[in-house]
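The material for today's practical consists of a large collection of protein records. Backbone structure tokens are a discrete shorthand for how the chain folds in space. An example says more than a description, so a record of this kind follows:
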Amino acid sequence: MSDLEVRQLRYFVAVAEELHFGRAAERLGMAQPPLSRAIREIERQLGVTLLERTTRRVTLTSAGEVLLRDARTALDAVTAAARRARHAGQPEPGLRLAMKADYDGGLLPQILAAYRNEAAALPVELVLGGPREQEPALRDGRADIALLPRPFDERGLDVEPLLTEPRLLAVAATDPLAARPRLHLADLGGRVLPDGRAAEQEGLRPLHSAEPRNDDSPRPARPSAPAAPPRHLDLAQIFNLVELGSIVWFPPASIARRHPRPDIAYRTVMDLPPLELALAWPQESRSPAVAAFVRTACALATADS
């Protein structure tokens, strides 16, 4: 049995995801007959049936399900390797730091200033993204290191806790909750968060699930709550919606300090879990620049605590 080529894996993944040879061929930009021949050749090489074909539908066999899972992983690794190689081969390489804007505990300017004095330091490029986008950026080669909230999928990554800080409730100053200096999650019935979840349920689930949520899955009906706002809002949009009373939000204390607004009240929620920030980088990394960044950041976080 000969090894499968990357091209063959791409062909198979397209068919396995579409479960339709015509749509898969269109996705790949090729004609259907050569795609069908390519899939038969993969099955011949492996000596197993990967797809059950009838005149009405295409389904995966158990062997096909296994190959689909592993082929996706292999293709992601190939893509990441190419990105890392291109980055390493640049005339002036840098250190790519993935993070969500403002989620740095207020330490990033100090970290960058101190990091520049390290012998192994490289110019830092910020790779900004929304919630739960930092860990994928590490895995697909878009970032060398990430500053991100726990929990996340730590498999294959080295992780160093950086800091833990309380989160507050951001609520419209006109909301009755703003008149109360301390609250509990149970007091937040009827309010929704920027991602559409019920605010009072925040303590019942992880802040960032390691398993991606299916955004198309139905949400429980909440007649008393406003319609859920769009996802992946930027900071300005979140503040505007909080001021209007459309949503509430749980920002880290450092964001509340940096962004006082007259139409928003920040209040303590006694049973709200804190935010834990960590640094993460691929286990196979041997970069002196990454090691220097981790060392600098941890030293500053310890001194600031």
